[in-house]
Amino acid sequence: MPHTAEPRSYAVRAAAAAIGLTTALSLAACGGGAPSSERAPASPKPSATASSTPVPHSVVTLSEANKILDNYQAVNNRANATRDAKLLATVEAGQLYARSKAEFEQFETLSKKDQKDYSSPFTFTDRTFYLPASGDWFAAQATTTGKNHTLLVFEKSPATGNAWKKVVSLFPAKALPSVDTIGGVAQTAAASGTAGKLAPDGVTAAVEDLFTTGGAKQGAAFTRTSDNVKSILKTYKERGEDLGPHAKVSFFPSTPLHDTVYALGTHDGVLAIAPLAHHEESLVLQPGLQINPGKVGSVYDKSPRPVMVDSFQGEALVLLPDKGQPDILDYRYAQTGSR
Hints:
By secondary structure, the chain is of the alpha+beta class. Helix content is 23%, strand content 32%. The chain has 8 helices and 15 strands. A hairpin with a 2-residue loop joins β8 and β9 (185-186).
């Protein structure tokens, strides 16, 4: 989930007090499945010049990509059923694995219905693959269990143990712009190359700036008409609203577990898939008060304390148009720790 709130309360050492306090909790949805269709995006009709150019090979074939997704689906379903983090680590890595592992750790904080839904098998259908000519990653779009539209990234590198593992799971609410292809091979963009107002490798700092300053710095590049940008700015604006004068809440950027940025070229811009990470610090300002962690925070540290630091890892999908302002198409965080 993008960012939701968990109730907490103050603990008082000298005198009784009952003041509401909230902290952020988000659970990332895991997905998987079997194909109802298997395809790469259609290429534009080649020109006479292009038709004489050899068609490049992709990093994996369409058949291989489907097998990788099939294996992920099967293993993820088994891991979810028993909350087996070690098994899941064979097919997931990076922030996504951190988010999924956190879900396993926080499972008992869910309602019985959500626990049942979480453990139910899922499938990937209506698959479309974006297969670059070279490199160590590819992307796919699919539908999970017939309703949720998802964008996935798989990577095979030393960071993933040199095995194909899923490293991104995002759920954009609207259709994505078409990815440029040549002969069925997806066209990538340089992470450091500016597309309009931002470079793909500047997305992480820009998104986190929305949390830390309300978009006064790098985040100023984003359109303010986007629902996702509005949601983050609402979180920033209301970050200490329930605390009154007794405490303050601040966000601080932190280091993503896996800092790779993926970029796909479109007709008039770039789709950037970037890592996210931050700490949310809740600081008591009145002597004698401490913060009681909520259900999720208590998974990691049950003790009342005057300063609480919650850790979050996530990913974002951002459209960087050649003209106009960037837009956050989706972002996902999970709380992965508390101290």
